[in-house]
Design brief:
There is one protein chain. The protein has 442 residues and is α+β, with helices and mostly antiparallel strands. The protein is built from 13 helices and 21 strands. Helix 8 packs antiparallel against helix 9 and helix 10 packs antiparallel against helix 11. The two termini are 37 Å apart.
Length: 442
Amino acid sequence: MKKLAMTEYGKRRQQLMQQIGADGVAILPAASEKIRNRDSEYLYRQDSDFYYLTGFNEPEAVLVLMPGREGGESLLFCRDRDPLMETWHGRRAGQKGAVQQYGLDQAFSISELDQVMPSLLDGRQTIYYTLGVLPEFDGQLNGWVNNIKARERRGAVAPSVVSGLDVLVHEMRLLKSDAELEIMREACAISAGAHRRAMTMCRPGLYEYQLEAELQHEFIHHGARVPAYNSIVGSGKNACILHYTENDRLMCDGDLVLIDAGCELDNYAADITRTFPVNGTFSPEQRALYSLVLKAQEQAIAVIRPGNPWMAFHDAAVRTLTEGLVDLGIVSGDVDQLIKDEAYRPFYMHGTGHWLGMDVHDVGNHKIDGQWRLFEPGMVLTVEPGLYIAPDNADVEEKWRGIGIRIEDNILVTAEGCEILTSGAEKDPDAIEALMKAQDWS
């Protein structure tokens, strides 16, 4: 499995400290462990911002960045080495490992946090920290500041400003480096292979969760231990539920199945959706709607290039879908007026995409000073138009009801235009049918 070099994390810390300046200090706690039930824990997942700056994957840790500090600018408070606990729960880096393995300048025991932090903050003007994520830690931070204020008559100087650290870090995360893109390409390739595997294994009489198992097999077989989000495997009318995750229906002859799934690799997400016929052949109505969604996606991707605004690809998809719905007789009227009236909303109720990176719905503002953000090379986003004809929608002909379709790819903005990172998963309807027919289940 590919992993980022530790030098990449060091460069990020230096870039962030240049923005903070000599009067600032950045504080970022690690994610807490989460209990699944009783004394069983969820598989640990580090806070994305913390991992982005450290590559450190242990709980009970705090990163402190102090530009210009003589004793070291990058500090980590972390758990001590403990042979007994490591026998039960796995290895720890400890303070020595934090410096030697992760490139931090200095490390302290997490048990020393309350003792050491007031002296570190003394004399710094601005604390860069994200309030509201961990309320208990907010209280700790307030206690350190009050500790300094209590000593002001003896010359201590407490920070006077708290500024959002997430604002700075999220802008950094929005533009991916070459090293990040190498990881994301691999995550996309693994995920595309998982969708191909699901297509080749699919047939009437299987349960949705059996296709989910094929996805999981492909992820883990290639070193991606976990999905980036709960996999959606929705067949028949379940495809009309946007975030359907029960995945327990028996798939029937004549159904479509919508799979929205992607793996996570070194904390980077892929996010692909494909829709295909359970029996390997699209019905005329299924193919008509599918071809319309595919055309909408192609039109949306065509406008993704540097200098174009964020909403351009959504607007392109909406126009194509609305024109197609008119052509199919599902809605009627003037296309421009239908778009203005959002007549497409009963059939297409979500946006056309989102940023993608360490989080599947990744960070980054869509507007700057009230204006839609312009695309820049290094941004990665999804493009995922869809159509969902509710099974109980009496305003459309019965032949369309209960059909749900979404097609989603991961797109990198390049200097010349864009690159489809997930092209390894078939989406042309003829190619899908050919792939599925190549499997002989007789």
